[in-house]
TrEMBL record:
PROSITE patterns: HTH_CROC1. This is Transcriptional regulator with XRE-family HTH domain. InterPro entries: Cro/C1-type_HTH, Lambda_DNA-bd_dom_sf. Pfam families: HTH_31. Transmembrane segments: none annotated. Residues 7-66 form the HTH cro/C1-type domain. CDD domains: HTH_XRE (cd00093). It comes from Streptomyces africanus.
Amino acid sequence: MQAARTIEILRTERGLSQRQLAGRVTSLGHPMSNTMLSRIERAQRRCDADDLVAIAEAPLVSPLVLLQGPTIT
């Protein structure tokens, strides 16, 4: 659940729509629709390890960032 929220936070901080992030993930070789990404962000779809790695790779962050959650500054 924490990873789902972190994905959404990171995506919005980077100024990306769900469609844009899903497109980046797809272009990296891991097909993902914006519907799939939306369901992951709302914790309605399980985020497998390969999904997590691909989603992290698109905005160039470590998968650990998604697992650890947002940092408070």
